[in-house]
Amino acid sequence: MCTGKCARFVGLSLITLSLVCIMANVLLLVPNGKTTWTNTKNLSLEVWLMSGIFGGGLLVLCPGIAAVRAGGKGCCGAGCCGNRCRMLRSVFCSALGLVGAIYCLAVSGSGLEKGPKCLKNGAWEYPIKETEGPSYLLNRTEWDAMCEEPPHAILWHVTLFSLLVVASCLEVVLCGVQVVNAAIGVLCGDCRKKGTPQ
Question: Where are the transmembrane segments (predicted)?
Answer without folding.
Answer: 7-28, 48-70, 91-112, 154-184
